[in-house]
Amino acid sequence: MTKGLLQDMRERFEQVQTPFYYYDTQLLAETFAAIRCETDKHEGWHMHYAVKACANPKVLQKIQQAGFGADCVSGGEIRTCLENGFPAGEIVFAGVGKADWEIELALEVGIQYFNVESLPELEVIAEIAERMGKVADVSFRINPDVGAHTHAHITTGRAENKFGIAREEMVRVIRTSQLMPSVRFVGLHFHIGSQILQMDDFEALCLRINGLQEQLEAEGIAVKNINVGGGLGIDYENPDQHPLPDFKAYFDTYVRHLKLRPGQHLHFELGRAVVGQCGSLITRCLYVKKAATKQFVIVDAGMTDLIRPALYGAHHHIENLSNSTSSNRKYDVVGPICESSDTFAKDCLLPETKRGDLLAIRSAGAYGEIMASRYNCRELPKAYTMEDFQS
Length: 391
Fold this sequence. Notes:
This protein has helices at residues 3-8, 10-13, 25-39, 57-65, 75-83, 100-109, 119-132, 170-178, 199-218, 247-257, 272-275, 308-312, 386-390; strands at 20-23, 45-50, 69-72, 91-93, 113-116, 136-143, 165-166, 183-189, 225-227, 265-268, 279-290, 295-299, 318-320, 328-334, 343-351, 358-361, 382-385. It is α/β, with parallel strands linked by helices. It folds into two domains: 25-275, Alanine racemase (TIM Barrel), CATH 3.20.20.10; 277-390, Lyase, Ornithine Decarboxylase, Chain A, domain 1 (Beta Barrel). The strands form two sheets. Strands 1, 11, 12, 13, 14, 15, 16 and 17 form an eight-stranded mixed sheet that branches. An eight-stranded parallel β-barrel has the order 2-3-4-5-6-8-9-10. Helix 3 (25-39) packs parallel to helix 10 (247-257), helix 6 packs across helix 7 (119-132) and helix 9 (199-218) runs parallel beside helix 10. The longest helix has 20 residues, at 199-218. It starts with a helix and ends with a helix.
C-alpha cells in the first residue's frame, strides 16, 4: 500500500471509529507471491507462518489459503490456526514454557512436531504422550550462540538467552530422546532473533548448523528436518519504497551457505516479513497542544493499540492522510494513555496537523494488533481489510 493509496482511502476511513487497524490484502498477496517465487524452486522447502506476529482471522485465512503452514508458540495459537483452516499436520509448536494442557492439545489434534527447548520439557512431553498412547515427533531447538544485529530485546540465539538447548548438550539430549518409546527425534530447530536486515547474520547461522551437522554425523545421528526459524526484517523507515523485504537475498543466503544433506527438509518460520508492511494503525488527532518547547499531536490511539514504540523504542513512519500539501512541522505524536512512555514519535515531521486529521502509523502489521491490551479499560482496536471497504 503506497502513501497515495492510503490517502485515497481517507473518505472511507472517515466512516469508521478510530483507532483501527487496516490490512492491505493486495500487498499481502504480493508478499505471498514473492515468497513462493523463491521457495517453490526448491524441493523439500516448507514455510510456516509465525502466528505470534499477527493472528487476525482474515489475515490468517489468506495465509492458509496461500499454502503456508503455521508456527505456533501457545495452545491458543494452535486453536486459532485450526479454527482458521490450517491442517494440524502443518502446525509446528515452539515455546520455552509449554503447559501440560497445551502439550495434550497438540498431541490430541496431531500437530506436525514440537520444537523442544529443554530436557525437562522433553521428559514431560514423553510422559504425557505415553499416557495418551501417542508418539510425539520432536525437533530440538539448539541455541547456536550466534549474535544478530538487532534490538537486545528481540535477539534469541545467544548463549545468555532463555531459548533453546546449549550446543554442548545437543548430542546427550538427542540420545536421551532415542531411548524414549513415546517420542521420535525428527530434526533440529534454530532461531537467532527478529528484525534482522544483515544477511551476514543468517550466513553465520548456516555455518554453525553445518558444523553441528558434521558433529552429529560423526555420532551416527541422522537429521530429517532443519528448521532455521525466521527473523527477516522490514523497512520501517521507507515502507513505500520497500513494501517487500529482500526475499531473494534472504533465501539465496541459505542456498549458498547451508549444506543440506540428501533428502533433508528445510523449514522457515517468517512472521514480520510476511505481514509487517501490510498493516497500518489509523488514528485521529484529538488535540494539538503547544508547550514551551514542543508541539504535541495527541491522537486517539495509544500504547494499548501499538506497544512497540513504548516497549522497544521502535520507529514507525507516520503520515497525515488529511493533509499532504502544507510544509512540514515538528511534532511529538503521543497517545492518551496515562504513561509518559505512550509516545509514538518524537520530533516527527508532519504537514500542519489539526484536530480531526486522520494519521496512519505505518508498518504495523506485525506485533501491532496482536499485542493490544485493555489497559486504562480501553476497548481493543477493531480491524478491517480492503475487502471490508469494498462491500
